[in-house]
Amino acid sequence: MDSAMLERLAIREVVDNWAMWRDTGQFEKLRTTFHPEAVFRATWFNGPFTEFIIASAAGWKRGSRSMHVLGGSSIEQKGHRAFAHTKMEIVVRANLEGVEVDANCYGRFFDFFEKRAGRWAIARRVCIYDKSCMSPARPGTPIVFDESLLMSFPEGYRYLAYVQAKNGQTVDPGLLTTRDPGVDALYAEADAWVAQGVVN
């Protein structure tokens, strides 16, 4: 196994650890997946990763039930910089007007990585949202929607945003979805980030 493959495996391990430690409440371990000044933007959070941990831990104590399922990952790495583009599914179990539901959202984590003192960690995470759906936990149970609120959110994360908003969270309506022009700009930014990892 060559050195480039070993670097990519180390980066993928960080992505996997993030999902496992986030979903099992291991927040001190979760800190090691990001650099101290890292930032993170998602439906309900936009800011420093240190604050994300505080908010996530508070949600965990309240009984928040969400999980992240990861798929394949494409990783580009040069020197001490890399980015990882990973398919993911977010599943949130929540109560919606007295009905227990699952909101599923499919998208991608786009992680800017940097290796410092021999350790890979995330410097910035951006989420790209592809599509979402919702179903009752008990099949056949009707779900009543506030159509105005539902349609106020982009298609890529509409049902996830809806259940989060209904349960008191403030949701960002301007996040990246699959065909947004901003996605190409993000790709270009990532290419520039990786190029700067090579020391001449």
User: How many helical elements?
Assistant: 6
Portion in beta strands:
35-45%
Number of domains: 1
CATH topology: Nuclear Transport Factor 2, Chain: A
User: How is the main sheet built?
Assistant: 7 strands, mixed
What is this structure, in a nutshell?
This protein has 200 residues and is of the alpha/beta class. Helix content is 34%, strand content 40%. It has helices spanning 3-23, 27-31, 49-62, 147-150, 158-166, 181-195; strands at 34-41, 46-48, 65-78, 81-96, 99-116, 119-136, 176-177.
Please describe the structure with a list of short key phrases separated by commas or semicolons.
single chain; 200 residues; alpha/beta; 7-stranded mixed sheet
